[in-house]
Design a protein that fits this description.
By secondary structure, the protein is an alpha+beta fold. The chain contains 21 helices and 16 strands. The relative contact order is 0.07.
Length: about 675
C-alpha cells in the first residue's frame, strides 16, 4: 500500500472516530444553525459556502479526500473548524454551527489569568504630589537628570521609555508599593512626561535638541527661539560670517581674435564670496569673485587668506576714481588687525559641505570654531544679508544684462542684450572690490553710526580688542592649506635622482637631488593653492626643510589647482587617443579658444586662465605683449627663499642648499614670460 493510500485511510478512520463524538441531534447538517448568506461579508462568502458544503459531505460520511478538496483547507484546520462549530454557545442555547465558518465571528471566552492589583485612581492625591516626591527624595531627581544627560539614554526619548527608567529609579530609592507613585493606576506616567517637557527640556534646550535632532539643529537653536533675529554676543572682530551670493548678471570676457582684434563672449554663472565681521564692529573683510558655478574649498581658503593677511586693491587707470580715499579692507589698513584670527565663523548652509575644510584651516592656524547657519532663517545673518541686498539692488541690478532675482522678476525682460553691450567680468570684479571697500568708510548703524574703519581703528588704539593672532612661523601662504604626507623616491639605477610625488607631479630641488641617502624618508609637503609651481618640504615637527620646484612642463610656469581642474576637464576633448594625459597645454588652450564663443562654461574657464596668467606676468611683460591697457589684478607675492637652519636637532645634518639671494617680487623685463614657456597660441599674444 502506498503512502498516499495509507494517509487517506488514516484520514477516513480519523473522520469516523470524530463522527462518533458528535451528538445524535447534530449529526444532520440541516439541523445546524447557519447564518443567512446575506449577513456574510462579500469577501468571505466563497469560503463560507465551501466549508458548509464540506461539513455537509462530512456528516454524510463521504470520503475525507473529497471533503478536504471541497473545503479547500488542510485536515488539521478542517477538524479544528468542526470542533468550534460543535461547541456550545456562551448562552447555552445551541452550538455555534455555521458561524464557525466565518472568519473572526466566533471568539473564545475571555478569562482573567492574573488577579487585578488594587490601585488608586489615576488622579489620586493632589496636583503637586509628583513635585513633592522629587523634593522629598532628591536622589530620584538627580538620577533622572543623570540618565537624560548621559550617553546611555535613547536618542529619541518617548513617554514609555522614560517611564520604565523612572520606575527602576523609584524602586532603587526604596519606595514601597503602597506609596506614591507605585500605588496609582498610571504610576505617575503623565506627571513624569509633563515634568520632562515643561521643566527638564527648557533648562537644557540646546543639549536636548542635539541629542534628539542632531548637531546642525542644535547649532540653529543656539541663536535664539522665535524667528532667529537675535544674535549671540561676541567681542569685537572675533566673530565672522562667510556667505556666497549669485551674481545675477550675464557677464562677458574679452578674447583675442585674429579677425576682429578682440571678441566678447558670454561666460557662465559666477559666485561672489564675502567675509564680514559681526556687530558691534561690522565691516567687510574680503570679497572674492570666483569664476565657478559653485564655490570650492580653495575659494573659501583664498577669501579667508585675504581677510586674515590683507589684500591690496589695485585699480586700472580708468577706474581709479571709483576707489575713495582711505577705502580698503581692515586687515590691510590697520596694522593691529593683520593676521588676526576669528574665534567663531558662521557659514551659510549653501557652504555647509565646506565646513570641515574651514574648521581644519582655523585649527591649524591658531584655533577657532565653525558654526552652520540656521536653516531658512536669513535674519540670523542680518549684516551680510543686508550687504548682499544693497550690493545687488544698488549695483548689479542696475547694469545691462542683469537677470534679476528669479523668473518673475521684471528685470528679466531686459536681460537679453548682445555680448557687445554686456559688462566684462573683470570690470565687475574691480567694481565689486571698490564697492565693498568704499562701504567700509561709510557710516552705518552696525558700526555705531560711524564708518567701520574708524570704529575698528579706535577700538585697536584703546586696546579694546581681544584678538588671537596667527603665529609668526605660520604666516606664509603655504600654511593656508593642509599638509600632505610624502616619501622621498629615488632610483639611481635608472638615473632618477631623489624626488617626492604629490598632486600628480614630481617635486625636487638641488639639495634633495644630492641626498640619495634620504630614500624612503617620510616628510610632509605644504603647498600654496594659488601657486603650485613650488612647495615647502617640512618634517614631522612642521619645521621647514627646503623649497621644492615642480618638474616637467608644469614646472615651467606658475599655476594653481583651478588651472589643473580646467586642464583635466578639457584635455580629453583635445585628443582622440587613449592617452589624453599627453595633451599639451598648448593644445588644450587652442581647443578652449575655439569652443569659447559657443560654450559659456568653456569661456568661463578660459577667462580664469587668462586672468590668472595675466596676474603672474610682470607689468613690463604685459606692456611688451600689448596687454597693458587691459585691467589687471595685483600679482601674487612670490614666496621668499627658505634657508635650512643648522642647529635643528630633529633634522638630518646637511649643508644648506646652494641658492642665490632671494628673488625680488618684480620680475625683470628681459626674462621670458611664463605664458610663452609652453607655446601659447598666437591669438593670446
Amino acid at each position: 500500500m502506498s503512502t498516499s493510500e495509507t494517509r487517506i485511510n488514516g484520514l477516513d478512520a480519523r473522520g469516523a472516530m470524530f463522527l462518533q463524538t458528535i451528538p445524535a441531534v447534530w449529526q444532520n447538517f440541516e439541523d445546524w444553525p447557519v447564518p443567512a448568506a446575506s449577513t456574510v461579508p462579500a469577501n468571505r462568502q466563497e469560503r463560507f459556502k465551501r466549508l458548509c458544503k464540506a461539513a455537509r459531505m462530512f456528516l454524510l460520511k463521504q470520503p475525507m479526500n473529497d471533503v478536504l478538496e471541497a473545503a479547500g483547507v488542510g485536515d488539521r484546520q478542517f477538524f479544528d473548524l468542526m470542533r468550534v462549530a460543535l461547541r456550545t454557545r456562551i448562552d447555552g442555547s445551541c452550538i455555534e454551527g455555521g458561524r464557525a465558518f466565518i472568519h473572526c465571528k466566533v471568539q473564545p471566552k475571555r478569562q482573567r489569568r492574573k488577579a487585578q492589583a488594587a490601585f488608586d485612581a489615576e488622579s489620586a492625591g493632589y496636583s503637586g504630589l509628583f513635585e513633592q516626591l522629587l523634593r522629598d527624595k532628591p536622589e530620584i531627581h538627580d538620577a533622572l537628570c543623570e540618565h537624560l544627560d548621559g550617553k546611555k539614554r535613547a536618542n529619541r526619548m518617548t513617554p514609555a521609555l522614560l517611564h520604565d527608567v523612572f520606575l527602576r529609579i523609584v524602586r532603587a530609592a526604596k519606595v514601597r508599593e503602597d506609596e506614591y507613585p507605585l500605588n496609582t493606576e498610571s504610576r505617575a506616567k503623565k506627571a513624569l512626561w509633563n515634568w520632562h517637557q515643561t521643566v527638564f527640556v527648557p533648562s537644557r534646550i540646546v543639549r536636548h535638541i542635539r541629542r534628539e535632532h542632531g548637531k546642525d539643529a542644535a547649532t540653529a537653536a543656539g541663536f535664539s527661539e522665535g524667528d532667529g533675529s537675535e544674535q549671540p554676543q561676541h567681542p569685537p572682530y572675533t566673530a565672522w560670517v562667510i556667505d556666497e551670493v549669485k551674481i545675477d548678471l550675464r557677464m562677458t570676457v574679452e578674447l583675442p581674435s585674429s579677425k576682429f582684434g578682440t571678441e566678447r563672449v558670454f561666460i557662465g554663472q559666477c559666485q561672489g564670496i564675502l567675509v564680514r565681521s559681526l556687530a558691534p564692529a561690522s565691516a567687510n573683510l574680503a570679497f572674492h569673485l570666483c569664476l565657478q558655478k559653485q564655490a570650492s574649498a580653495d575659494d573659501i581658503a583664498l577669501a579667508l587668506r585675504y581677510a586674515i593677511a590683507g589684500r591690496d586693491i589695485s585699480m586700472s587707470s580708468d577706474g581709479q576714481w571709483a576707489l575713495h580715499e582711505g577705502a580698503g579692507f581692515p586687515s590691510k589698513l590697520i596694522t593691529a588687525l593683520q593676521y588676526a584670527l576669528p574665534q567663531h565663523i558662521y557659514l551659510d548652509n549653501s557652504l555647509a559641505h565646506l565646513a570641515d575644510q574651514v574648521q581644519y584651516l582655523l585649527t591649524q592656524m591658531g584655533g577657532g570654531k565653525v558654526h552652520l547657519g540656521k536653516p531658512a532663517m536669513p535674519k540670523s545673518r542680518p549684516e551680510i544679508e543686508a550687504a548682499f541686498a544693497r550690493y545687488l539692488n544698488d549695483f548689479i541690478h542696475q547694469l545691462p544684462g542683469t537677470t534679476g532675482t528669479g523668473p518673475k522678476d521684471p528685470l528679466r525682460q531686459v536681460a537679453e542684450v548682445p555680448a557687445e553691450k554686456s559688462v566684462v567680468w573683470s570690470w565687475i570684479n574691480e567694481a565689486s572690490l571698490a564697492y565693498f571697500a568704499n562701504e567700509n568708510i561709510t557710516g552705518s548703524a552696525a558700526s555705531g553710526y560711524s564708518d567701520a574703519i574708524t570704529r575698528l581703528r579706535s577700538l585697536a588704539e584703546q586696546g579694546a580688542l581681544q584678538l588671537n593672532y596667527v603665529p609668526e612661523g605660520r604666516r606664509k601662504v603655504h600654511y593656508f592649506s593642509p599638509p600632505r604626507e610624502v616619501r622621498v623616491n629615488c632610483n639611481l639605477a635608472k638615473g632618477r635622482l631623489p624626488y617626492v610625488y604629490t598632486m600628480y607631479r614630481r617635486y625636487s630641488c638641488t639639495w634633495l637631488k644630492s641626498r640619495p641617502d634620504l630614500k624612503g624618508k617620510r616628510y610632509f609637503v605644504r603647498i600654496d593653492p594659488d601657486d603650485l609651481s613650488h612647495a615647502l618640504l617640512v618634517d614631522d615637527n612642521d619645521a621647514e626643510v627646503c623649497v621644492l620646484r615642480a618638474e616637467g612642463q608644469w614646472g615651467l610656469f606658475t599655476h594653481n589647482q583651478q588651472i589643473l581642474r580646467i586642464y583635466a576637464r578639457h584635455k580629453h576633448r583635445v585628443l582622440n587617443g587613449r592617452r589624453a594625459y599627453e595633451a599639451s597645454i598648448h593644445l588644450v588652450l587652442e581647443r578652449m579658444a575655439e569652443a569659447a564663443p559657443n560654450d559659456a562654461d568653456t569661456a568661463q574657464d578660459l577667462a580664469y586662465v587668462i586672468d590668472y596668467f595675466r596676474r603672474c606676468v610682470s607689468p613690463e611683460a604685459q606692456a611688451k605683449l600689448g596687454m597693458s591697457n587691459i585691467p589687471a589684478l595685483p600679482s601674487p607675492d612670490v614666496a621668499p627663499q627658505i634657508v635650512v637652519p643648522r642647529s635643528r636637532p630633529a633634522m638630518v645634518p646637511v649643508s644648506p642648499p646652494r641658492t642665490s639671494a632671494p628673488r625680488s617680487t618684480a620680475r625683470p623685463s628681459d626674462r621670458r614670460s611664463p605664458t610663452t614657456s609652453f607655446a601659447i597660441p598666437k591669438r593670446f599674444a
